Amino acid sequence: MRFPRSCGTLVHPTSFPGKYGIGDFGYEAREFINFLEQTQQTIWQVLPLTPTGYGNSPYASYSAFAGNAYLISPDILVEKGLLTKSEAEKAKLPSRLEVQYEEAFQQKDILFGYACDRFYENLDSVEEKKFKAFKKENKHWLEDYTLFMACGKHHGMQPWNTWEKEIAQRKPEALKKYRKKYSADIKLHNWLQYEFYNQWMALKQYANTKNIRVVGDIPIFVDHNSSDVWANPEYFAVDELGNRTLVAGVPPDYFSETGQLWGNPQYNWKVLEKDNFSWWVKRFKHMFTQCDAIRVDHFRGFDAYWEVKADEKTAINGRWVDGPGEKLFDTILKECGELPIIAEDLGFVTEGVEKLRDKYAFPGMKIIQFAFDSDSTNSFLPHNYPQNSVAYSGTHDNDTSIGWYNQAPEKEKHHARVYTKSDGNQINWEFIRLGMLSVSDQAIFPLQDFMNLGGEHRMNFPGTSSGNWLWRYTSEMLHQVDTHRINELINLSNRKNNA
Question: Full-prediction pTM beyond 0.90?
Fold first, then answer.
């Protein structure tokens, strides 16, 4: 589908300010949405909202369907009467410009225990009916996920293929036994998912009433240590013991000389196809209930993917294998109807990738930071953009624009200065202006670029496993953004909220 000419901001909820060590769905999230409204922006793009596993990466999740419970706001739980003010007060952490994952998890786990007990104790008939409906609608993933998390907790969240054989291989008697054994943990996770859903949908509704669309993110691969692989091993490249045999990554590229070895198990696409891609259809349907549009991560992997043997140390020794392509998207289109999808088509893009993207009129991504390392034919230079595309100054995988400029080779800096007809001292605003004035239907910018922030505020360094996903801002930083300048550019470029 074609998107209206519009503009928006990329920021993940963990980056919001707040009192509990990690951003959440509370008051500060609404303050951010108010900022979008004040600046006539109509897009809010987030990273995956699923539970984070190793390294706190939103792209390494315990589930492709569940929500990250640590985004639940304690303040909203207080409003609902599930926590007391004094309980929430005790969980407060000092405000910092980094997420305090461990401390936040510890404090929120205590609060969630209190709130969960009160939820079940005071469950009236109306709420119980809603809760039952939620569990029924999400049964296809929720029952496996809650048991997986309960078992995981009692195994120190070690990979599921290291658990006792009976439960690792999901023997029917074992499933029954462990559901009974860990019933209290399962009750907690059922409530957490219900509360996540209610808080997120209320926040999304708040955005939608202001004509702001939420763009979610669907990673192509899932983590090996996830309920998805544990519950559906036939869909993934794992052996009878659950060990990975073939894993995902990308060959050497702009980001890494040895490529990126992600380690996610590859899909058994033939098995998925025989099942009419039912798991993928459910995944997309689920995402479309939670978001207004979806950025499909690593879109090129649906045309062809880089396959590496699981025992390799880097991604260098791999091979390209044909992906499901049109068969998958024809099925999803038939089952889901219109597909408001943004294709993350970065990296090594072939004719096949472009053909697949264009068949469904999915807009691709244009990153301005990639524009200055060659000549005037560079596809990332704004004068070469097609209208059906999304212009970005950078993404969560890039440095901030100021950080990029400070680190770039002098030749690229010079090219950027000449192209923007500037001295480079406000390169973030120059890139925002380029994206705004481009013909791209959508222009989306990381919040860091609106805030004039340097490389120390970067969100992620691809190919590294620590020190990522930490960035947070303060309320003062948001209030200091030049909203007049944003409004001026949006009016100038005809991207304003026309609702």
Answer: yes
Strand order through the sheet with 318-322: 260-265, 246-250, 304-309, 318-322
Whole-angstrom distance, CA of residue 168 vs CA of residue 159? 9
Cβ proximity of 415 and 381 under 8 Å: no
Using alpha carbons, select from 120, 110, 192, 108 the residue that is nearest to residue 150. 192
Distance CA 45, CA 498 (A): 19
CB-based contact 63:51 (threshold 8 Å):
yes
Residues 6+ apart with CB under 8 A from 97: 457, 471, 472, 473, 474
- Assess contact for 265 and 228: CB atoms under 8 A: no
**Can you spell out the DSSP letters for 394-413?**
--TTSPPHHHHHHHS-HHHH
Pairwise CA distance, residues 434 & 420, whole Å: 8
Count Cα neighbours of 358 within 13 Å in the Cβ-side half-sphere.
Answer: 9
Give me the tens of pLDDT residue by residue for the chain, a chain 499 residues long.
678 999 999 999 999 999 999 999 999 999 999 999 999 999 999 999 999 988 999 999 999 999 999 999 999 999 999 999 999 999 999 889 999 999 999 999 999 999 999 999 999 999 999 999 999 999 999 999 999 999 999 999 999 999 999 999 999 999 999 999 999 999 999 999 999 999 999 999 999 999 999 999 999 999 999 999 999 999 999 999 999 999 999 888 766 788 888 899 999 999 999 999 999 999 999 999 999 999 999 999 999 999 999 999 999 999 999 999 999 999 999 999 999 999 999 987 899 999 999 999 999 999 999 999 999 999 999 999 999 999 999 999 999 999 999 999 999 999 999 999 999 999 999 999 999 999 999 999 999 999 999 999 999 998 788 899 999 999 999 999 999 999 999 999 999 876 5
- Reference 447, options 382, 401, 485; nearest CA is 401
Q: Which residues are catalytically annotated?
A: 297, 344, 397
Distance CA 46, CA 107 (A): 25
Determine the number of helices (DSSP H) and then strands (DSSP E) in the chain. 20, 12
Joined together, the tokens standing for residue 31 give 């303050």
Distance between CA atoms of residues 456 and 377, nearest Å? 32
State the first-to-last Cα distance of the chain, in angstroms, to the nearest integer. 19
